[in-house]
Amino acid sequence: MNETRIEVKDLVVRYGDQVAVNGVSFSVGRGEHLTLLGPSGCGKTTTLRAIAGLEQPSGGSIRVDGRTMYDAAGRTNVQTEQRGVSMVFQSYAIWPHMSVFDNVAYGLRVRKQSQDDIKANVERALDLVQMRHLAERGASKLSGGQQQRVALARAIAFSPTVVLFDEPLSNLDAKLRAEMRVELRELQRRLGITSVYVTHDQEEALAISDRVIVMNVGVIEQIGTPEEIYNRPRSRFVADFVGSANLIKGRPAGDGTFVTEGGTSLKVMAPHTPHGKETEVAVRTAYIGLEPQAGENHVPGKVRQRLFHGDFVQYVVDSGVGAMIVRRPPTNLLPEGADVTLSFSPEHCVLLEV
Ligand SMILES: Nc1ncnc2c1ncn2[C@@H]1O[C@H](COP(=O)(O)OP(=O)(O)OP(=O)(O)O)[C@@H](O)[C@H]1O
């Protein structure tokens, strides 16, 4: 995993006056699944397309498997077809008038493989996505999930070293998307594919990635494993965009203590050094209990609202540190108006840097 397969350094991409990607650097290890996550317009698709050679950067460098694909200084810019990378798009981009087999074979024919190789490679790819039994079917007669599998088979048929995914599951309904995530992750691990994946869906990013890059307005906000991003958000943006968190304003008072605007003293953890005196702590909604626990921060409160979601219950609790959202399992339901003690450990009370 430590062997670097993709290296992006100080990447800048402009559209006219607008800077879409503003100095982005990261690397992807062999067999790693890295996800670029961020809101619409943050530059994640542009970054991915630049790696594929579909976008012309104006600064920085891109290396894949030790080969320089783009280098502003050295004026290198390798053509898309010569980069050895494969891409799966949101809109499947499969041809409805062709059979499943021909769709998958297309890229191999373009690469002038022999008939025998084409047959073997198409069948292997279709086996991997469990679509071989539908090889002769017309692509227009497939469900959304099956079409996406064909697109995936086509992307892996020529054994690319790197696969780039641009929101490949976003056209599927929620249930199928959840199923395909599991399949995709399984396939990616089994084949040891090095991949960069773009999504705006934070749940998807956390579920399927080895590491996640959170982007905002053309720059990287944070890079880390899904657990690091969730448990140790660096900024208000990350705490807010990934998962759900309560943000409490105040200032650090030394010795791992944080004093809220309302004067409540909390024990916190500080994985990052805060920039200013006024800052915030983030407390995940899933990490707050409603009864006292030894060694935790305690804040008295009253349940203002209870929303039953099925898989969990969401409480809005008015407290001395503001209105706090709390997610609990759907058992031992508390009524609205109940007096509670908000309880969360210092480890889950994360001081934000910015
Ligand atoms: N072809 C283009 N011409 C001009 N501006 C563009 C072009 N493509 C993207 N942009 C702009 O560049 C910025 C980054 O776009 P990009 O598509 O990379 O964002 P994104 O994070 O992938 O968003 P989305 O999820 O909506 O695709 C946006 O402000 C966008 O409007």
Automatic annotation (TrEMBL):
Family: Belongs to the ABC transporter superfamily.
Record GO terms (molecular function): ATP binding
Domain of life: Bacteria
Domain ABC transporter: from-to ranges: 6-242
Identification of the protein by name: ABC transporter ATP-binding protein
PROSITE patterns, sorted: ABC_TRANSPORTER_1 (PS00211), ABC_TRANSPORTER_2 (PS50893)
Organism (species): Reyranella humidisoli
Pfam family, one: ABC_tran
